[in-house]
């Protein structure tokens, strides 16, 4: 099937975050019925893909990932909060 003029997404950034499984902290069930796990992010990098503007080449100096599992545990959503310099 051809593109037919519909918009499409292309990656702009590549994020590589370093985490350790032993640092995971289960938060448990939340008001939405989902369950949540907090994972500290110690270090990492954020870089723009070649040809993407704005150019970015940053070092992650700290942060955390919140992983939310749907009530049926079939899908999860990642919410990353981090500081980069």
Structural class: mainly beta
- List the helices and strands in order: EEEEEE
Mean pLDDT over the residues: 90
Give the fraction of residues assigned to helices: under 10%
In total, how many beta strands? Answer: 6
Task: Characterize the overall form.
Answer: flat
Provide key terms for this protein.
85 residues, mainly beta, six-stranded antiparallel beta sheet
Describe the structure.
- With 85 residues, this protein is mainly β.
- The protein has no helices and six strands.
- Strands 1, 2, 3, 4, 5 and 6 form a six-stranded antiparallel beta sheet that branches.
- The protein starts with 12 loop residues before the first strand and ends with a strand.
Short synopsis of the structure:
The chain is an all-beta fold and 85 residues long. It contains no helices and 6 strands.
Task: Break the fold down into its secondary structure elements and pairings.
Layout: E1 13-18, E2 25-29, E3 35-41, E4 43-48, E5 57-69, E6 76-84
Antiparallel strand pairs: 1-4, 2-3, 3-5, 4-5, 5-6
């Amino acid at each position: 099937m051809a593109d037919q003029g519909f918009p499409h997404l292309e990656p702009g950034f590549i994020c590589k975050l370093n985490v350790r499984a032993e640092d995971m902290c289960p938060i448990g069930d939340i008001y939405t019925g989902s369950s949540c796990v907090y994972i500290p992010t110690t270090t990492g990098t954020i870089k723009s893909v070649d040809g993407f503007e704005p150019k970015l080449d940053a070092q992650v100096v700290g942060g955390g990932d919140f992983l939310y599992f749907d009530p049926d545990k079939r899908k999860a959503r990642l919410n990353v909060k981090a500081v980069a310099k």
